[in-house]
Design brief:
This protein is mainly α. The chain has one domain. It is about 80% helix and about 0% strand. The chain contains 9 helices and no strands. Helix 5 runs parallel beside helix 9.
């Protein structure tokens, strides 16, 4: 598993630096347009892990690398586990980068004062708790989409498997809408949940943390499913 983990990180090292720069630009543009700092951390935490998964799966088909890789002393379980570990590591680093970048931009906006173009990104308008919560929500959404993308892509290849990913993602979000939408199963319990977490910033962080844990559980289920699917794949 470790060689596969290091292999994926080696492939992606410069790509991740470039993606981080792009995410900063996108986050700033969205933040200034929307007048909120909450988009910065969410953008970085959501985009980098998802784009990493897409890129690694695309590299697998480059020059038929995925078939050549099986000739190396790597088991199929090692390949799958190493890939998920790489994406988790990237997700953790991107979340920390998202938080650090958000706090840095908020501090700069605070120092520049209300006359600057980024005045709306200061901490006066964006409580730190909400910045943390938005970043965790962005990470959770990314992990859910990654969990839906990898199993069909590693079973059938990126070209064929990606066709199924939108349907899986749509099913996940439709299931969530049916639970939380009008007359949803969980709707009667929402007031109790709001009372439990409260309306404070820390309540938002706690709710985001629970959603993040749920996303990690889905990723673990996705990992086990991918191990079984990839074990039966023919090249």
């Amino acid at each position: 598993m470790k060689p596969m983990f290091l292999n994926d990180l080696t492939i992606m090292r410069w790509y991740l630096v470039q993606t981080y720069g792009i995410c900063i630009a996108v986050g700033l543009f969205m933040g200034v347009a929307m007048g909120s700092l909450l988009t910065m951390g969410a953008c970085i935490a959501a985009m980098i892990p998802l784009l990493t998964a897409f890129s690694l799966l695309s590299y697998d088909e480059l020059n038929n690398w995925q078939a050549y890789r099986l000739a190396m002393p790597l088991s199929r379980n090692d390949i799958v586990s190493g890939r998920y570990l790489c994406i988790l590591a990237v997700a953790l680093v991107s979340t920390l980068l998202g938080l650090a970048t958000s706090f840095l931009v908020g501090l700069i906006a605070q120092l520049l004062g209300p006359a600057s173009m980024i005045a709306a990104l200061s901490f006066e308008s964006n409580p730190t708790g909400l910045v943390v919560a938005s970043t965790l929500f962005g990470l959770s959404g990314s992990l859910i989409m990654v969990a839906a993308l990898i199993p069909p892509a590693m079973k059938s290849g990126m070209t064929k498997g990606v066709r199924f990913a939108p349907f899986i993602i749509m099913f996940v979000f439709l299931a969530g809408a049916s639970l939380l939408g009008d007359d949803g199963v969980l709707v009667p319990y929402i007031p109790r949940m709001l009372d439990l977490f409260g309306s404070s910033d820390m309540g938002a962080v706690a709710a985001a943390g629970i959603v993040c844990v749920a996303a990690l559980v889905l990723l673990a289920i996705s990992h086990q499913a991918t191990r079984r699917l990839y074990a039966t794949r023919d090249f």
